[in-house]
Amino acid sequence: FSPKMLAGQRVLITAGPTFEAIDPVRGITNLSSGKMGFAIARAARQAGAEVTLVAGPVHLATPRGVRRIPVVSARNMAQAVMEQAQQATVFIATAAVADWRPASSAEHKIKKDGSGEVPALAFVENPDILAGVAASERARSGQLYCVGFAAESENLLAHASAKRARKGVPLLVGNIGPATFGQDDNALLLVDAQGHRELPRASKTELARQLVAEIAQRLGTARQR
Ligand code: C5P
Question: What confidence category does residue 221 fall into, taking pLDDT thresholds of 50, 70 and 90?
């Protein structure tokens, strides 16, 4: 890691969960803490990049020097990312985006009417933000380097390799279990076209710095300055 290794790069990161409204006071979300994404934003900034962090609802402080764009739903996040991706040179998707959202969200609070009847929820699929960005002209022409994450409970290498191909990204990073949501440390499995390597258990702060160095190496910017 060196403080100039991402100088001149514009890094776009998604972090945290998304929140999908059912009505004005209820919704569906998940337990992503946002810690890994925020740590990567801090590390990328410390490596000299200009960093934009599109963050779902989390209570973490914005890392110094990082531009934060707060979003709520997957569709909010997708819109912010599509706009920002036009200028970015690196996209790192750490957000735990809700796979589905309620098909419709009620304008007013859904009332309990005393009859014992329960509301039925129908779902529709959310846009896949990472796959969308990876399929963009900027990414396909090599102007935007895309990195995805995967949280799997078993067969991490196989699932991570498959996900890398399915999402169409050059680098896919697997969270090595047990479940890392909310934890301050993690271990990572990096899968790219050359193969795979493990970053052993360490604090998310330390892993973020190692990951930034790995990305800089793949961009060819690690030893440029
Ligand atoms: O498909 P899955 O959720 O397992 O893939 C995880 C990766 O894809 C993460 O990098 C996550 O941020 C990204 N993702 C996304 N938009 C979605 C679902 C996942 O960007 N709707």
Answer: confident
Q: Which residues of 158-185 are buried (b: 16+ CB within 10 A; e: fewer)?
A: ebbbebbeebbbbbbbbbbeeebeeeee
Q: How far apart are the first and last CA of the chain?
A: 12
Cα angle vertex 218, ends 3, 85, to 5°?
80
Nearest CA to ligand 1 atom 2: 150
Q: What CATH class does 10-87+123-219 carry?
A: alpha beta
Q: Note the pLDDT tens digit of each residue in 207-216.
A: 999 999 999 9
CA dist 127 to 1, 29, 79, 171, 211, Å?
Answer: 34, 16, 10, 20, 26
pLDDT tens, 135-159? 999 999 999 999 999 987 788 999 9
| Residue located nearest, by CA, to atom 9 of ligand 1 | 149
Contact (Cβ atoms closer than 8 angstroms) between residue 93 and residue 171: no
- Cα-to-centroid distance, 99 and ligand 1 (Å): 8
